[in-house]
Specification:
Blueprint: H1 3-11, H2 14-48, E1 59-60, E2 69-70, H3 72-100, H4 114-127
Antiparallel strand pairs: 1-2
Length: 128
């Protein structure tokens, strides 16, 4: 199989296309949620905490000549972003599962083969 045919077979498999669509939609969704956090949620949190901008919080652990900043505010911001994205995805999956309805009931097991039924009847008769 030529390299192009092999690549085409790989790229056209359903799960690869689904993954590509998921990545693109996930990237767009991440931008929406980041905008929500940056423009709406964090200003409200900042107003509640007295105007603190979390993304600017840092601690200087170096000297004045060679400052070393620990930007823990960026970590707090990323953590809040993650929690909101995780919650939004959880709610979306929950809504999709609810729309799909309950899972189908498991199928009843097939009846045993006729020979097995006859053997069981013979066994039961012999026990008596």
């Amino acid at each position: 199989m030529s390299l192009m045919k092999e690549f085409k077979a790989f790229a056209m498999r359903g799960n690869v296309i689904d993954l590509a669509v998921g990545v693109v939609i996930g990237g767009a969704f991440g931008k929406i949620v980041s905008s929500l956090v940056d423009a709406i949620i964090m200003p409200i949190v900042g107003a509640i905490t007295g105007g603190v901008d979390f993304s600017e919080l840092s601690a200087n652990i170096g000297s004045e000549a060679a400052p070393v900043l620990l930007k823990y505010g960026a970590f707090i911001q990323a953590t809040v972003d993650f929690l909101i994205i995780a919650f939004a995805i959880f709610m979306a999956v929950k809504a999709i599962n609810k729309l799909q309805g309950p899972p189908p009931a498991p199928a009843a097991p097939p009846p045993p083969p006729r020979e097995q039924v006859l053997l069981e009847e013979i066994r039961d008769l012999l026990k008596k």
